[in-house]
Predict the structure.
Amino acid sequence: MKKILSGNEAIALGFSDSGGVFASGYPGTPSTETLEALARIGDVYCEWATNEKVGLESAIGASIAGGRAMATMKHVGVNVAADALLTLAYTGVNAGLILMVADDPGMHSSQNEQDSRNYAKFAKIPMLDPSDSREAYDFVSAGLELSERFDTPVMLRTTTRISHAKGVVEPREKLPPRIREWVKDVPKYVMLPNYGQARHQELEKRLLRLREFAETTPLNREEAGGNDLGILTSGVSYQYVKEAYPGASILKLGLVHPLPEKKIREFAGKVKRLMIVEELDAIFEEQVRAMGVRVDIGKDRISLCGEVSADIVRAAAEEADAAKGAAPAADLPQRPPTLCPGCSHRGLFSILGKLKVFVSGDIGCYTLGALPPMSAMHSCICMGASISAAHGMAKVNEIAGGRGKPVAVIGDSTFFHSGMTGLLSMAYNGGSALVIIMDNRTTGMTGGQENPGSGRVLAGELSRQVDIIALVKALGVDHVEEISTYDLKETEAAIRKGLATPGPYVLVDKNPCVLRYRVKTIPVAVDPEKCSGCRACLKAACVALGLVSSGDKPKVMIDPDICNGCDVCSQLCKFDAMYKK
Amino acid sequence: MGVFNIVIAGVGGQGVLLASRVLAESALASGMDVKQNEVHGMAQRGGSVISFVRIGEDVRSPVVMPGTADLLISFEPLEALRYLHYLKPGGRLVYNKVPLNPSTVASGLATYPPDVEERIARSCPGSRGIEALSIARDAGNVKAVNMVMVGSVLPNLPLDPRVVEEVVKEISRGKGFDVNLKALAGGVAAAGA
């Protein structure tokens, strides 16, 4: 029966229908829904790992033990897992192993737009690049077969427009899971230098065999059309090409590493102009040029940054400027994402902004604390960097002298992911930063996933809930206190004490995510007689607040349908104008 | 038929995704090809949200290009104005008249333009504003604005309204069944009024 599935859902179903046995990963937009969908399907064991490296390593173990395995992550997650990946390329697999990676061209919800195709080249392993949900589904079984046939991990790469776009999928017959024998093979799996040297030879031989395979596999197909323009493309770019030039000659790659050199040469020889349409890096183009094949239109006309579109393809082929069309309305107020009404992060950033400290931030909803009017976060690089970067800042400040203590802000899931190691290092090296762990018992920004602090696993069953305070103490920090950021006075006092005390100091807020746990409290109301229109409360940056005209000065009103009664705005009010009915 | 392009705009949390799903499932149930795409993740936190639903015999790109939408459904007036350029000449706009303050306005960094509806009417003469919030409230839940908006565009879709109703029933199985159907009917009535 036909179904409408997102690319992520299609990959989950594809894994379940292809005898998948084990899946692990770490949430990250746009990859997150893959494991969530697999958990909903319910017939394959799947879990949230504490980070991408752990997820991939667990999948490696599952493969060695003979179960078809998959690890899922976003593009930057592969950086974390790269240590495992680059050596996994040497060992190869037992049962089929797929690393599903979701790129985010255009950075809809990411800190960079790195192109994961580089990793396939770097690791010398095959990569599949589906162009819609149907192919996302099919490429899972193709990838597992490829993995087992060539004894190699396979990367299955999506982009946001594949992972999140929904299309029609017609599932095949379901394969039962088969578990292979669990064998000891020291030269294959123990990467001591002498064994590694032999495996490297194997890897290079395997890559040559894969190059041959690329020439004949139906994963790469030519669509014959006119001979004026020939387009080499893959992934969602193929759809943009079909939209712009339904009748063009196309060489559509499903296997994007290694490239089919003979096929590309033949194709290029048949057309007057060769165009390469690829999002982000010039990966195809550089390789095709290195083959000595002339590329007429490529990255000279299509940006290295952001997404491609049908209009961009058309403009590039016609060597004209992209169609302008109607212009968007100018001068509209922006509507950036913002902390939810009632969010526990709001009180914290109100105080951090007031104290004017340097805040070393991290990846999560709380990164929104960097936006005005709070403007209370001053660096955010990658998962877990808040604590280690604050440590470096504190050491330089110690040498420079006369500077204040930095503050690191990190969420629970990010702390488990890679903040813990930074804190251990800081305590070990006699560092001195104030670390605030916002433990809202969920991985919030990606939609509210479980983690070791939430007390449940991916499939929903109860699990052991880690005690963050005991954990922090065990890492070597003596000063650790619990606070509630809904109480601004208490929060300010605790932060001031933490800043004044030398050495590592940790504060933990344990208020739950109001969105994930559906926390609803009585809304706050404004007494218009008492409101002076001073706007102090607007610093809370809450969408429930607004100004209404009233006499000479607009006054504040609160929308009761939106307010979640957190009382941060009422604590910012100096005129006692806010009350609860 | 060619491809019928729908753009749904709104604010994170308003249920743009569910409305998109209803339209996409209805297209599938009608035997058509469909692609639906929205960007989620960070945008869900009260940010501006835009979703595409493309219906036809053979749909390729999951993205609607500016200047090509047959129908723009906006759950909020300012967002209607923001994405108005997605409409093709002669395309239709149906929007919810109830404004929601962006965080930039709520924190006093910007003001909500007082002439949003006038600007919409000037740029898109055939547009229609709906009091979706009060209709949703009457149906039993202020969160059913999305179903009101789906109801309000039923006459403009290349889909049988009964198919859409069946999909809404199927999707809201268990909870919100009555509310969603009432909201859908409320939207239909508002469109005809």
Q: What stands out?
A: The first strand of chain A starts at residue 3 and ends at 6. Chain A touches chain B through 61 residues (CB under 8 Å). The mean pLDDT of chain A is 96. Residues 193-216 of chain A form the longest helix (24 residues).
